[in-house]
Amino acid sequence: MIFGEFDTDAAAGVMLAHTLKAGGRTLKKGRTLVDADLAWLREAGIDTVLGARLAPGDVAEDAAAAQIAALLTGPDTNAATRPPYTGRCNLHASLRGVVQVDIERIDRLNLLDEAVAIGTLPQHAVARPGQVVATVKIIPFAVPASLIEACREIASAGPLLRVAELKPHRVALIMSELPGMKESIFAGTVAATRHRLDALGSRLALVLRCAHERAALEAMVRQALASGCELVLVCGATVAKDRNDIAPAAVTAAGGRIDHFGMPVEPGNMLVLAHVGSVPVVIMPGCGRSRRTNGLDWVLQRLLAGLAPTREDIMRLGVGGLIRSPLEAEDAAGEDAEDGDSEGSAAPPPRPGAPRVAALVLAAGQSSRMGAANKLLIEVGGVPMVLRAVNAARASRAASVTVVVGHEAEAVGTALATSGATLVDNPDHAQGMSSSLRHGIAALPDDIDAVIVLLGDMPRITAEHVDRVIAAFDPAAPSIVMPEKDGRRGNPILWPREFFAAMAGICGDQGARGLIEHNADRVKRIAIDDDAIFVDVDRPGDLAQAEASLVAASGSGMVEEPVT
Q1: Across 182-196, 235-249, 372-386, least confident range
Q2: Nearest Cα residue to 526 out of 479, 561, 556
Q3: Preceding peptide of 75 cis, ω within 30°
Q4: Does a cis peptide bond (omega within 30 degrees of 0) precede residue 384?
Q5: 98 and 164 Cβ atoms separated by less than 8 Å
Q6: pTM of full prediction above 0.90
Q7: Which residue intervals define the domain MobA-like NTP transferase in the entry (predicted)?
Q8: Alpha-carbon distance 439 to 442, whole Å?
Q9: Which among 146, 167, 321, 440 has the fewest CB atoms less than 10 Å away?
Q10: DSSP code string of 194-234
Q11: Quick count: other Cβ atoms within 10 Å of Cβ 55?
């Protein structure tokens, strides 16, 4: 490229270095001059222009910027280029996610030549859809093609930037308490946690509360896992001071492992990262009760984008780990908490326009085939069977949770005392399941569009199963929604409101089976590749099989397939 002053008479093909204005006309910088421009310049008395003329093998700034920007990304990186302008080409995120940058190779590109300047968002920054995540600027008007080839060689190992999608997660918050703690502390923690998760596209699905004791926290961790939550947050009454402190010890007792204790980030030093099976568990630092940015935010962003940090990842956060953010609106824990926003209300009101589906858990049976024990109170995976069902409903997108009790109602009620579910007594429980349906339907809120019926003796049903059934319900074309596998019908089943009267009129212990058969043309089946929709416990032998199947299923997911 030749840069300098050119006589106007010989400036055809020269790109202007600066904007020229004369005689009411403007020629913008970067314009490639043509004969008509030169005639106007001569008329205006301009004898020379400052600009650049491309040499053989040069690539103009816009084309060069576009070619280099294309080298940064690739298929499935969730970032794409847009048309270049004035020597610049930007990459934009195609979805909300966490930015991953190959820092070493970006540095190598920038060190090649001063003509190429590449800037990106910081490593692991959160990007919104359409946001610029990287920019390539060609400093001069053109670069030699050999420089682009040198860039291509560095980029040949694969994309240098991607946006890891922030995927929605169902999250549980466990809070432990000591005598004398104010309710505003717990309400504020719930509000701050919900705010934090909502901003990342996830949902606070289940809130549990217990005494600050190892055994109590262990039980809560087991409950959160049994409900189907995909991330567990533990906010202790006191922060953990050691791997053997109460909260870390509870996670370990629940079958977990401590991945790392502490982080070189302030605020956030006392965070503990753990796992139980494949589910991440984060023991929150004290600052996690606040909405101010802290180390918890950095860890959550990565976990929710599928970028689980290693010990080394965490220990490399020290440079830049001194966070000094301004006070955000409605910040202090407890100051902005809504009245009653405590352990009984994990989820915000349903989204406008979303169907309101109530969950109805049938837990009134006498469990006569189990023997002397009430099967609903037997622990499976450390959690009473009825509580597993109720927490699965609580952690789902159901608008409310109602439980029908009958046999040993007081004991069942005690097991559900902190669940926040509405308990309905069925004095006629000896007449069979139909009586529980009748009492349960009568107790449902008036403003719901449908009900999903869960059985209290199906210990492997989680919020994921419930949500899949709810998601298949279309209030504009209401159908009975039923999960199935290999053509075999399972539970739970969703019923539109129009069937409530018929459900209330059913007799005997067969539930609504006859109603399904009579309305076969109104049934919508969804395929779920998971035996959980069949696994119930009626006899002592079923219990051992349920425990075994629970262990076998702990490392696998469910695969949903469309069914016509």
Answers
A1: 372-386
A2: 561
A3: no
A4: no
A5: yes
A6: no
A7: 359-519
A8: 5
A9: 146
A10: HHHHHHTT-EEEEEEEEESSHHHHHHHHHHHHHHT-SEEEE
A11: 10
